[in-house]
Write a structure and sequence with these properties.
This protein is an all-alpha fold and about 80 residues long. It has 2 helices and no strands. The protein is elongated, with a radius of gyration of 19 Å. It starts with a helix and ends with a helix.
């Protein structure tokens, strides 16, 4: 079954939102190990920037793989004729 663009976006958003929470907590724990001192607002802003990039990346990759799957199916259908 083919996944719609909307469902691809919804899946990507949920995936990235969960990742955002994990990333912010990880940054809070890891940044001090590297001597990085950031405020909670700066931490959340950096997480937000990475989140936007991650949404775009995830959506683009999902659509690319869906296009490959559809093309492969079309080729297989053409070969059977």
């Amino acid at each position: 079954m083919k996944q719609s663009r909307l469902m691809s976006l919804v899946e990507s958003l949920i995936n990235v939102l969960v990742g955002y929470g994990i990333a912010v907590v990880t940054q809070i724990l890891i940044f001090p190990w590297f001597g990085l001192q950031v405020t909670p607002a700066q931490n959340m802003a950096m997480g937000g920037i990475f989140t936007v990039v991650s949404i775009a990346r995830s959506f683009a990759l999902r659509r690319m793989f869906e296009a490959v799957r559809v093309r492969r199916g079309e080729r297989q259908s053409a070969c059977r004729r």
